Amino acid sequence: MGIVSPGFHGRRRQGDVKLPPGQYLTDDFPVLSAGPTPRVGQDEWEFVVTTETGERHRWSWREFLALPSETPTVDIHCVTKWSKLGTTWTGVSLDTLLADVETTADYALARSYGGYTTNLPLEDLLDGRAWLAYRFDGEDLHPEHGGPVRLLVPHLYFWKSAKWVHGLDLLTQDEPGFWETAGYHDYGDPWLEQRYQGD
Ligand SMILES: Nc1nc2c(c(=O)[nH]1)N[C@H]1C(S)=C(S)[C@@H](COP(=O)(O)O)O[C@H]1N2
Ligand SMILES: [Mo]
After folding, report:
1. Whose alpha carbon is nearest atom 5 of ligand 1?
2. Which InterPro entries match (predicted)?
3. Which residues in the chain land under pLDDT 50?
4. Host H or E run for residue 97
5. What's the CATH code of the domain at 50?
6. Which atom of ligand 1 is nearest to 35's Cα?
7. Would 5 be classed as within a structural domain?
8. For residue 76, which ligand has an atom nearest its CA?
């Protein structure tokens, strides 16, 4: 015991960590919400995808939980400059949810209970890059962190990961959401430091 081979890929040491530009590490899990925390019970929660033709696909909590889940471990990066590494979630991949949704849309607008919205290209929700997460660190997702269900899109700044997510509008034209309308970047790639419009 005690010998770690050079190829060991377990817990990353501080010196090995590559953070996006301008970010610092935190072990805390800060809460960032633009308004009060909506209390959405699992029984009333539903997820609704509305396509560009107005077709609606909906999942109740029960139907949602019956879908195959994944347990991704990912790094998250907030535009206020904290990053948290190796966070583990349980959720349903958007690939799974959108598998039978027919669409030619290029954009998505996520809608949350409470009115928050955020936009992203539809392709950024696909190919194993986005989940509807309902557990964090082995426990039901806490309401402050978006429970019962939040969007998790770790390759973009964390404002794109809509808490208390209620649905997705699939759109043929990009439509800015809450923070994007307020001057934040339309796409928000942390590695390109796309914090604000014009970055
Ligand atoms: N519905 C909703 N989702 C949201 C927000 C919000 O205010 N409302 N804030 C965003 C921002 S700016 C960040 S950094 C993360 C924060 O998630 P956390 O509170 O779980 O850390 O949620 C994002 N999703
Ligand atoms: Mo944020």
Report:
1. 33
2. OxRdtase_Mopterin-bd_dom (IPR000572), OxRdtase_Mopterin-bd_sf (IPR036374)
3. 1-10
4. helix 94-98
5. 3.90.420.10
6. 7
7. no
8. 1
Domain count, the chain: 1
pLDDT at 18: 85
Q: What is the pTM of this model?
A: 0.93
Q: How far is CA 46 from CA 25, 64, 112, 166, 167, in A?
A: 34, 8, 11, 6, 8
Instruction: Tell me, yes or no, whether 49 lies in a domain.
Output: yes
State both tokens at 7.
Answer: 């190829």
Mutation test of ligand 1: which of 39, 109, 160, 161 has the most ligand atoms closer than 8 Å to its C-beta? 161
Q: Determine the pLDDT at residue 9.
A: 45
Q: Which of 171, 114, 173, 127 is nearest to 153 (CA)?
A: 127
Which residue owns the Cα nearest ligand 1 atom 12?
159
> pLDDT per residue over 145-162, tens digit each?
999 999 999 999 999 999
